[in-house]
Structures
1.
Amino acid sequence: MGFATAAVVATDTFAPVSVPLDAGLHAVRGEIAAVLSMRHNGPRPVRLRYELVGRGDAPVVVLAGGISAHRHVAANAEFPEKGWAEGLVAAGRALDPAVQRILAFDFIGADGALDLPIDTADQADALALLLDHLGISQLQCFVGYSYGALVGQQFAIRHRQRLLKLVAVSGAHRPHPYAAAWRALQRRAVALGQLQCAESHGLALARQFAMLSYRTPEEFGERFDAPPEVVNGRVRVAAEDYLDAAGAQYAARTPVDAYLRLSESIDLHRVDPAAIRVPTVVVAVEGDRLVPLADCVGLVEGLGPRGSLRVLRSPYGHDAFLKETDRIDAILANAIRSLGETA
Amino acid sequence: MGFATAAVVATDTFAPVSVPLDAGLHAVRGEIAAVLSMRHNGPRPVRLRYELVGRGDAPVVVLAGGISAHRHVAANAEFPEKGWAEGLVAAGRALDPAVQRILAFDFIGADGALDLPIDTADQADALALLLDHLGISQLQCFVGYSYGALVGQQFAIRHRQRLLKLVAVSGAHRPHPYAAAWRALQRRAVALGQLQCAESHGLALARQFAMLSYRTPEEFGERFDAPPEVVNGRVRVAAEDYLDAAGAQYAARTPVDAYLRLSESIDLHRVDPAAIRVPTVVVAVEGDRLVPLADCVGLVEGLGPRGSLRVLRSPYGHDAFLKETDRIDAILANAIRSLGETA
């Protein structure tokens, strides 16, 4: 086992809310209490929450998204609410619960219960614990987007015998210093809000600044070209309604510590691409303001013969994975098919 | 006169601190009390503060910079402290006090005394009042950078008979919606600070976010590539020392209302390029995250035969004017020389 630093001390503390997988049903959720040896903090109790969709004998693909993603990727019969990757996980898609089992999980810290530095290595080890619990020895593929791509890299390095292929979308082997500075300032906006009692106000502002890094000037130019208004003696620009809604929605559903610690976690990430010894498809978006194309090229170069690069041009920048679902699906279909050839 | 909306009601309320210009000395500062008819607020008392450097009979060039610029552009015998455009105003440069008189002024609102919407048209009319006071009928050239370029456009439109040539660096005829959103969020950081009795803290954060828009990922990638540190249980990235210093320095010297109202003023700016009827050189920086090249091209297209474009590639982005002084000087030399041919 590749995760000697982590140990399950209790499983099934919470029973899955649906019937067991091997009954052939489609979706199951569960929550596990475990102790994880964390890189910066030593052993800590954590909760591992997952959702697994598909038939019990199919190969398993993990799908992991950005820091605000979670275990519910798409609506299904048992959990009909919308997921964060609708359009990518569906019948006929490269990620099709009729063909594979799709496993997704809440990142540790996403519940706000860990107010300490969280490493992407910790997330990878938490996933390995979860796979033990589920009796899954190997993943057909890890599809990671944004923060999920970083976790996928760590999983490939730390648990390589459990992974056949990695698809890393919009995430490089280290954060770009400019993007790191941008995130650091977002965390300061939260800290400013915390000074007295405007915590959600600060979190909303941080999210609004983050939105500017997820999207592009092209998109804003098309959507928000109206002149500003003077409202109550203050200038209000066209994008502010949109940003207000985005900030409020995010602050309402996100614990402040979850945001702070997962944001930090992106900035803690640094791996040696040469240590990733599974076939890896790197997907980069030209115009991504957080993860420049050049950094994805650097990752692919470090991967050597195991790496390949797909470049997408999109006005959605870092959010292209969530917006360009047809084009991303085509890339995933190719990536998973090429796995069949090499595995 | 092209500024019927503005009227001087009192001049020389404050005597110049140096001897009068026509004595042939090099630098003079002055401050005028006036009433300005403001676009969004009607008549308001304002202070017009200027510095004029050069010989009394030379042609006058106005140099106006970004919202944090001021009347002191370069050290001189009378005022030896460093100015904001050192390296561009000097012996042998295109802007040489031995050849022209260089006029610079504090933007209205820069003293924090105007807590209301300020239009770029107001700044242009304030300059016209100042020229009346100084007995200057016509400018050889208006060199505007960033906010100064917007003011120059308004001056060319509203007071065209007083201007022979405009050089507009890193400023288009309207703000880009993405840049406007970025500034709106900076103003929210200030508002959050005000809510928390941490006004200078909020202003420093706003300035730090602004720094990211003034500079480029290329520069940050070169300067701040060190790994993050965990300090007191918090992740601190490599650029934070730099950003701390930039924020503190700015907050110490800038009234909060000055920042808010001049930031708004950029977002209020919208002119029709076709209304600018003086020869205009537009200087754009490829990689400027605030003023995209495409918007400068739009400005030049609207100028028709009166416009020409110079494009600079710089890792300093929006701040190239202040950093690439040799290359900017060469562009200014050409622009001022070509004026001689057409005037």
2.
Amino acid sequence: MRKAAFMKIRIHVSLKPGVLDPQGRAVHHALEGLGFAGVDDVRIGRLIELELADNTSDDAIAEMCEKLLANTVIENYRIEKVAA
Amino acid sequence: MRKAAFMKIRIHVSLKPGVLDPQGRAVHHALEGLGFAGVDDVRIGRLIELELADNTSDDAIAEMCEKLLANTVIENYRIEKVAA
């Protein structure tokens, strides 16, 4: 029997342009408060690293994003297959 | 006078191996609850997108990470310069 093989997938979730990012603004103000100049904008997103069975289909991964990992009303997501 | 030019930087912040990730485990259980098979592990990190003046030094960016953007006791960070 073939030993189960896994693949590493990264999901990059970020707020859609135009969506207010209070967390990003708080970090922006904190950076300026620490004296860092030249910071024009800060946006905070999520980086989800998945170890999946290597026979998991692209459709299943997209479905995971649509149903749970990203709030597609206000967020975009990008699926990245990490070289083993 | 030269118009201020900005560059896009992405900071990938992830928990160090071995550090417990309760958020990742919650998502893992939720995926299984939705019927997705073959999920071996889930780790959640942060994706911070910065628009910085293009004369910001690498040292200054690293200092932003060390002082604010990452908790270096339990997190690793990777700085990515995004092509304009």
